[in-house]
Design brief:
It is built from 24 helices and 22 strands. By secondary structure, the protein is an alpha/beta fold.
């Protein structure tokens, strides 16, 4: 294996990168010349970079990649950049797309994309093809829905009470499913129900239908059979960057370690993330135990945030499990709220006044910000638990503060599950991009998914352009092909929003005929029929319709609103920057802020040595409390605090107010005797 020496980076390279990104020459050096980021850009070593919220982590990564691309000489070895989303790729396209360096980064021999995309392209898909196992589609919804329909009726009758269908994903190359649990009952391998699930997993996979997590099964199998594959990949990618490394779960971390770190030599790896923000999308997901982030001997810290000032930094820093000593060098410190200089507010409420919390927050925003700032700013109210449950623990979830809140449309990117929802997503993307192509693509994708659900033998569009593939499949039926083209043209060019009566009378009959022709069937399956139905009010994305404007957006006042507040979950705003944030207390085994109040006083700092449950609470609310540039507010039940504790809050930088039905009554801090 050829030795690799990373290009040497000088001050003038960093200055060039700053200009290429549209930043000041001093962007990575700091005004005093002591910014830690310049040293990190120059380093050729393996690093684990702990970057605090708002530190410009992605900008740092893109600058480093741009410099390396400028100096790169090897035509067959490249840079690998992995993350959980395509944020890094999108940032390169946005900020460097018109430069030669940016264009080089996005083509061979480099790879910039998601972890799943990398595993598929370089390991799982080639291995599956070599084993003559077809790959028609990799999609959890299609695959799990198909497997459910393939189960015999007696098995679906037994399993229909299960709260999750995760067991329909296989966990090994013999297609053994995950744990099948129904209440306290766990089905064992020798039982007929378990065998039925395993059988449909095998049959579905052999038909070419796979879930995303199953690609890791085959990637690991490839490495089991051919360990030298890791050496070849390390040779191809001598430099590896992993963004948002704190979000890697155990499966991802263990597999990446096998690929890039288990051979005699390894790629030089730079990981970027923030372990204090390691929150996962569901309670069953756990962080990495194999190769966790960060390693102490590789750790380098960026503790300066350009998002907020020192006032917010001082309030949030205690909630970091491993505090960095946040330095707030952004935001604005001026406030109109308080003569004593404190502006960040804790809003105390009682059960009878919980419905007034968001209106009170809106009034505070109107007092704090100018009309221009209210029009252009990003104002949020977020909570940890956002789905309802029958309970006496008020507030349990975000909807207890605002009954109009819909948790089904609160995700970062709601996933369409019906034909109409695909069209709504297409129209939304078309409006953003000012072009009709997203509508055409989503229409074609929805048609092909509907056909696959009726006939698994339908030629898959996986890895192909959906619109072109649909036209090819309709080539021998001129009527159906013309119907397809007329319908997609109408949907792409007609600005009239889809309505239920219009969908069912004008579009649905034609769509059924098109789908039936592509699927080569006279009878559409029940799964396809459900997919083609008008979405119900409680389905994800179903309310993402232009005429309904149901986007969890609270407007205050309701007539002629002066401020608009986006309401959602803490998970949905990870990575975002807000003008102002209100963090709503919610319940998970206990009320969050009741358990964390000593951190709000500043009596406790960090979470090392605390239980896993405490650390999860801390990370969740550290994320929440580091979104705001200007104003941070918390909403907490009044009976969580004693009068003495309320005074502690006022001495720790909080302005405390009690919410009533008509106004907020601010607590006067006790005057010092000195």
């Amino acid at each position: 294996m050829m030795e690799f020496e990373s290009p040497e980076i000088q001050d003038e390279d960093i200055t060039w990168a700053s200009r290429a990104l549209g930043l000041p020459d001093s962007a990575f050096f700091g005004n005093d010349g002591h910014d830690a980021r310049a040293k990190l850009l120059k380093s050729p070593d393996a690093l684990d970079i702990e970057a605090c919220p708002g530190s410009g982590k992605t900008t740092l990564l893109v600058a480093k990649l741009a410099i390396l691309s400028r100096q790169w000489k090897d035509r067959t070895r490249g840079i690998c950049v992995l993350s959980h989303t395509n944020t890094a790729r999108e940032e390169i396209e946005h900020r460097l797309g018109n430069t030669l360096e940016g264009q080089r980064l996005l083509r061979y021999p480099n790879y910039v994309g998601t972890i799943h995309g990398f595993i598929n392209e370089f390991l799982a898909l080639p291995w599956l093809r070599s084993l003559d196992i077809p790959v028609r589609t990799i999609d959890d919804d299609i695959c799990i829905g198909q497997r459910w329909e393939m189960l015999p009726d007696w098995a679906t009758n037994i399993l229909k009470g299960a709260t999750s269908r995760d067991y329909l994903r296989y966990r090994s190359i013999d297609f053994t499913p995950g744990e099948i649990r129904l209440g306290k009952k766990v089905f064992l391998e020798h039982e007929n129900t378990f065998k039925a699930v395993q059988r449909v997993c095998r049959q579905s996979a052999q038909n070419g239908f796979h879930c995303h997590s199953e690609m890791f099964v085959w990637a690991n199998n490839l490495l089991d059979k051919n360990p030298d594959v890791s050496r070849y990949i390390q040779h191809r990618f001598p430099l590896l960057f992993v963004d948002e490394a704190q979000d890697n779960d155990e499966d991802q971390s263990a597999l990446l370690d096998r690929i890039f770190g288990s051979a005699d030599t390894r790629s030089t790896r730079v990981r970027l993330g923030d372990s204090n923000q390691a929150i996962f999308s569901h309670s069953r997901q756990e962080g990495a135990t194999t190769d966790p982030f960060p390693h102490d001997h590789l750790r380098r810290d960026i503790e300066s945030s350009f998002r907020f000032g020192q006032d917010i930094a001082d309030l949030a820093n205690p909630l970091a499990v491993t505090p960095q000593g946040l330095k707030g060098v952004g935001g604005e410190s001026q406030s109109t709220l308080s003569s004593d200089g404190s502006k960040h507010a804790i809003l105390l409420f009682e059960e009878h006044s919980i419905g007034n919390v968001l209106d009170t927050y809106a009034k505070i925003l109107i007092d704090e910000f100018s009309p221009e700032q209210l029009a252009s700013g990003k104002f949020f109210a977020i909570g940890g638990t956002h789905r309802p449950k029958q309970t006496k623990h008020l507030p349990y979830h975000v909807g207890d503060y605002w009954p109009s809140y819909d948790p089904n449309i609160a995700g970062r990117e709601a996933k369409p599950s019906t034909f109409v929802q695909f069209m709504n997503v297409g129209r939304r993307n078309a409006d953003k991009q000012n072009m009709t192509q997203p509508i055409v693509s989503k229409f074609a994708e929805a048609v092909l998914i509907a056909a696959l659900r009726s006939n698994p033998a339908t030629p898959s569009y996986f890895g192909r352009m959906p619109h072109r593939h649909a036209l090819e499949l309709l080539e021998n039926n001129k009527t159906a092909r013309n119907n397809y083209l007329q319908l997609v043209t109408t949907l792409a060019t007609d600005p009239i929003p889809l309505e239920e009566k219009l969908w069912e009378s004008k579009f649905l009959p034609t769509v059924r005929l098109i789908v039936a022709e592509i699927a080569k069937t006279n009878a559409l399956s029940s799964g396809t029929q459900t997919f083609l139905e008008w979405p119900q009010a409680d389905d994800p994305v179903s309310l993402d319709l232009p005429q309904q404007q149901s986007t969890n957006l609270l407007e205050y006042p309701t007539t002629d609103p002066r401020v608009r507040i986006k309401v959602g979950s803490i998970h949905s705003v990870k990575g975002q920057t807000h003008t102002a944030t209100l963090v709503l207390d919610t319940f998970f085994n206990s009320h969050h802020f009741k358990m964390l109040k000593k951190w709000l006083f500043g009596e406790k700092i960090g979470g090392v040595g605390e239980s896993d449950a405490y650390q999860k609470r801390l990370r969740l609310h550290y994320v929440a409390m580091t979104r705001a540039e200007r104003l941070l507010c918390l909403a907490i039940r009044k009976d969580v605090f004693s009068e003495k504790e309320i005074q502690k809050l006022t001495t720790h930088g909080w302005r405390v107010g009690c919410v009533t039905k008509s106004k907020i009554e601010w607590v006067e801090p006790e005057k010092s005797d000195q």
